[in-house]
Amino acid sequence: MKYSISFEKLLELFPTSKVEGSTEQTKFCGISALERATSGDISFLGNAKYKKLVPTSNASVILLPHSYTGTPSHNQIYLKIDDPSVGLACLCKFLEKEFAPSPPAEIHSTAWIDPTAKVGERVSIGAFSFIGKNATVGNNSKIGTHCHVGDYSVVGESCQLYPSVKLLTHCYIGSRVTLNAGVVVGSEGYGFDTVDGVHEKIPHLGKVVIEDDVEIGANTCLDRARFEETRIGKGTKIDNLVQIGHNVRIGNGCLIVAQVGIAGSVKFEDEVVVGGQAGFAGHLTVGKGAKIAGQAGITKNVTPGAFLKGNPALPFKLSQRISILQKRLPELFNRFDAIESND
Amino acid sequence: MKYSISFEKLLELFPTSKVEGSTEQTKFCGISALERATSGDISFLGNAKYKKLVPTSNASVILLPHSYTGTPSHNQIYLKIDDPSVGLACLCKFLEKEFAPSPPAEIHSTAWIDPTAKVGERVSIGAFSFIGKNATVGNNSKIGTHCHVGDYSVVGESCQLYPSVKLLTHCYIGSRVTLNAGVVVGSEGYGFDTVDGVHEKIPHLGKVVIEDDVEIGANTCLDRARFEETRIGKGTKIDNLVQIGHNVRIGNGCLIVAQVGIAGSVKFEDEVVVGGQAGFAGHLTVGKGAKIAGQAGITKNVTPGAFLKGNPALPFKLSQRISILQKRLPELFNRFDAIESND
Amino acid sequence: MKYSISFEKLLELFPTSKVEGSTEQTKFCGISALERATSGDISFLGNAKYKKLVPTSNASVILLPHSYTGTPSHNQIYLKIDDPSVGLACLCKFLEKEFAPSPPAEIHSTAWIDPTAKVGERVSIGAFSFIGKNATVGNNSKIGTHCHVGDYSVVGESCQLYPSVKLLTHCYIGSRVTLNAGVVVGSEGYGFDTVDGVHEKIPHLGKVVIEDDVEIGANTCLDRARFEETRIGKGTKIDNLVQIGHNVRIGNGCLIVAQVGIAGSVKFEDEVVVGGQAGFAGHLTVGKGAKIAGQAGITKNVTPGAFLKGNPALPFKLSQRISILQKRLPELFNRFDAIESND
Predict the structure, then answer these.
(1) pTM of the predicted model as reported, rounded to 2 decimal places
(2) How distant is the Cα of A322 from the closest Cα of chain B, in angstroms?
(3) Which end of chain C has fewer CB atoms surrounding its CB within 10 Å, N or C?
(4) pLDDT at C192
(5) Is residue A330 in some structural domain?
(6) Which residue numbers of C are catalytic?
(7) Going by DSSP bridges, is the β-strand pair B192-195/B198-201 parallel, antiparallel, or unpaired?
(8) What is the domain-level CATH number for residue A32?
(9) Which one of A243, A299, A342 makes the best mutation probe of the B interface by having the most chain B beta carbons within 10 Å?
(10) How far is CA B234 from the centre of its chain?
(11) Residues B60 and B39 in one domain
């Protein structure tokens, strides 16, 4: 994507910003990290740990927090704003809208749409996509190539399904939902009863419900419920390669990072945050606002607001203290041997 | 899926059940968890930990084990059976057969079937699916949309391939096998020889064999063998997002939960059970009936019947005892300092 | 794949080999592990741990290192070479070329190629594949079935994309790159700013660059950069189900085993080796030639050449020593109680 933005436009986007320094550049054509930016680029300080890179950056404009102290280089502007990360996102949204506008809605000639399906206004359906019997696609939604919207499934308004998303039958997607490439919604749950040594399959007759404003990462899988429903609450964001088991209920505004595994019938209350590769045993409840560190193994209910780490999971500070003491185990054993030999 | 079932039909399904209480309802139209069930629903006690929810449940019928003691509410029936989980599965199977019968077999007009492929009787092939040269699909099998059955591959009888299953060349699938959406069978194994600092690829000329009655979860990957075969034994059930490396041999009746990783040339004997996110280093043997806890890291052979946990993996009870003692490390260091200062 | 190779041909492939023993077999039709090989098969000793299987192997030819001491059975040849693993790879490459030659290049009649796309010479494009606007596919590249090459994306020369690979827009793939089935390149990065409790999406306008000679395993995901690029260096090999976050930069010649997760903006220098299921927190640098054990959790920068294990990650030897001492914690607590009661 090629783009350029004038200094006047930048000031329009950040009307309350404070300007320091000056530059001969009138247009900026790139956004780059502090250490890789060159003349003509905009850069930003999004994370305090990179503060030492600001003085040597060659960016023409640097978005900085008001608290930053220092002087711009020759031919460089400091643009001080409340939150450079939010500012950058705002700038990116402007550029995306201006320079990468969505193509006009189009239903590709190779797509297969069942005559009983209901397709709204201004809908795009990509090449080789399949819309099943009695399925619904709401206004302004974009279905990529090679997607499958199963019989009786519903996609709300203004959704984006990237290539190869698979919604099996009876999956209900709200509005403004983004499903990245390869997402599977409504796979059979993993449930077997072992009778006389043979694993007999339990049929999964339930559905999957994804509420408004949810985003789900590439190749993530959500199993359908045994009966009832698997549900993802409003505004929850799920990363790539996550496993959501059957009958799981995730609350609103949760953040679930890549490769997390959530076994069947787990319940998350609202605003739970889970680091990458953490795992949850079945049938647990995780309280509102709990934070779970990456790679943690959760086998018991979690109280609201708890911050857990490790497997078995412990309160974050205790876990860190134990990690430090573990490193001292060789020393402890030595001291211990010394005491015993003294006796 | 909408359905209803009469009380008479329920008694037919559970001829040896014991009935307590009575209800005015004559038809039941939902299956729900104890705490969410309303009048007209059937519920069940599948896990003893939910016992306290039975007295307050509004379900019209509750499937309970014979050992349950208590009295049904007004307008409520207790149906006591040997195993409520098995009972529920049996009920679900009946409902599925009765109310969600399979559509008639159909080969979609957009599917591509090579003229040299052999397709059996009553086979369904979904939209945009590809059946390669000399491939075989057995009687009564159902191939979903966007599937790829590679050259020389064989799908047995009464299999179900959900959308976007990819069987590359020379993959041999038995009968009554279920492959969920996005499963990849026969990807290149990860094998490189590093010669003069360059990672040279080892060609993978082997095949993949999946025996009868296997089920595999969404987006799981099975690599083809270097030579010989990668094999999954009869009746084994594998969950979503699992990695099966090249030359792996899994025995019969194993259970492998989501996101497990099994490196190349590992051998599982029969009836091994593995919890989610566990990992196995290459070239190991895991003995018959061994149990591996979730997130365990296995780097040595496992004896038959062992139950291991943690990384490095230890016998379950020892691992739990050590976890408890680790929590007491801060106390131990304090007591230790006290003794030393006493001396 | 059926094949046979004569003893003369074997000697041609290994001109500096040393022959011991003799066999009546003149053609060899299989390659098998030592314990499963039968008469007519070639086998090999690739890993010293299998040495004890050599004397009882029924293989007609066994590739062995010069250091192996022992005598071939009746009707059996020992072929001693420098490195039997490399030798086997060389043999496999010969067989692949001779007996499984690539079919002639073909663009399938069902493929959709945008009129503005540039497709080179001798390119194969599989059934139901989609090549977008202004996309490029270089000479001799093979695109499997159900692939998506997005608008403005570039695939170099002699690449292989297996079925259902998804390259979204602005993805740049070098030459001789292999992407296994279901790989997603260019998914939206996981980046949200939480403003007034709502997770606002940060648009991802950057690209993905994959350099020459890279191989990527099935269902692995690579997110596009927020701005700038996500980059995989020359000759790096990535296994199945790996997560590569936005703005990640992987150096040359790295090896990344299955189910590894790498969070946003991590930088790997060259020749880093990572075991399966390891995880990396965001914004870290991993130094040249560092080795990370499977399931390790990396939350700090890693110095070049380091070898780390565990979570929190420690130097390999220290981590192993602590694991051994942890097993002795029950004993330590007992000894401690004894001392205290003595006082």
Answers:
(1) 0.92
(2) 7
(3) C
(4) 83
(5) no
(6) 246
(7) antiparallel
(8) 3.40.1390.10
(9) A243
(10) 13
(11) yes
